[in-house]
Amino acid sequence: MKRKKQTTSEGHIEIVNGDLESHPQCPHGPTILFSRNVKGTKRNFFACAASRDRKHCNFFLWAENRSSFKKDVWQQEINKELEGINHEKLFSVQEMMKVPPAMRLFCHKCTELVDEREDDQHKNHDSIRKLTDYQLKHPTEILPALENTKKEAQYLFSKSSVQTMMDMFERLGYRHIICIGTPRIHEHLQNHCSNFTSILLDMDKRFHSFFGPHQYCWYNMFNHHFFFEEARDVFRNFLHTNNGKNIMLVTDPPFGGRTELIANTLNTINEEYEELNDVRTDLPMFWIYPYFMEPQIRNSMPEFRMLDFKVEYENHAMFHNGLKGRKQGSPVRIFTNVDLRSIKLPDDDYKYCDECDKWVAIENKHCAACNDCTSKSGVTYVHCTRCSRCVKPTWQHCGKCGRCTQKDHLCEQLVFHKECYNCKEPGHKKADCPKNSEVGAKKMLNQPNLKPKKKKKKH
């Protein structure tokens, strides 16, 4: 994967990607350069990479006013964010195990584990008391989920989904797992999988108390920012584990996050992986996101394909198969650069398609015309001969629009307004770029991306 400087649009706001390290910094790391139309004129501005709501981070700077940037003032804000965070001191699970359970508590206000015998200042704070050994080892089951959808929305995988993914990773031969925003998987690996190693990169600083400095890094995935430099070194060491063999990455970003920023981070990590291990194959990655975000993901990462596995969450009303869940099951899927033909899914809800040579959901029916199992949303799609593609059964063909769509729609031509990452022209995605070579367009699905080895820089 090659990281490119690119300008992409989403609505009326565009992201202008460049050298993040040269950007002004807020408490959440390097800011992002955005561009938007103001009275018919494009104006660039810097804003927080982590939060889309200025109530949570009010950093805002017009690019033309950069010379007036008050670096000292914002450095004070950064220092406040880091104040009191000492990973070595906060990591106290092992010591807490020696404390009688009746005296153990986690203070939500102070975000730390406390021995009540030695510290009574948390008496009136919101906290959880009498922690068992199991709870200390499974913090995601006691910490209230962060549900700020404009910053660090936190939905937790169901135990069945975690187990299915773990079976999948083990069958594929991975043993060293980078968990970005997936604390449930990391927690499972740390407690139940002695033949695996893992590291958690997450925005939730409460994990400092539960995972050691070599198992957890405080991290912002939208700008690849480590809040402490020593954590960056820990991550790079992990990326070099076993010279890069049997290592993979799994990420579950907030669904409101910009796919372009996530893609840039994954590309950056992949470049580090190749450089550190002197390899020319991509780091295996699993990106967990809703199925309807496939066009955006494929536009940023055309080598990724969607796996038909429905990922369930236990603390989201719609993202599970229960009585109160979505009728068609969870809309969340896994996008990966790993060959789909090598991934087996559970027999109960999935089946093997001989024509596609891959596992698909039970309701997914192979279409001879499309030569693919085309269902994506959890219902069986039907083929439209006029569109030459399969669509949802509730859709119908509209002659005026020249496409299938919802019955009660407004007739207008759907146009892809963003720029293609390949030719930089608007109106189509990189995967559909007419300037792609026929060989590239017909490339075998997810074959190893072999590239000439980069020449090492002379120092």
TrEMBL record:
Subcellular location: Cytoplasm
GO MF, any single term: zinc ion binding
Region (Disordered): 427-459
Top-level taxon: Eukaryota
Limits of the CCHC-type domain: 420-435
GO cellular component assignments: cytoplasm; nucleolus
Keyword set, alphabetical order: Cytoplasm, Metal-binding, Methyltransferase, Nucleus, Transferase, Zinc, Zinc-finger
Protein name as annotated: CCHC-type domain-containing protein
Naturally occurring in which organism (per UniProt): Phaedon cochleariae
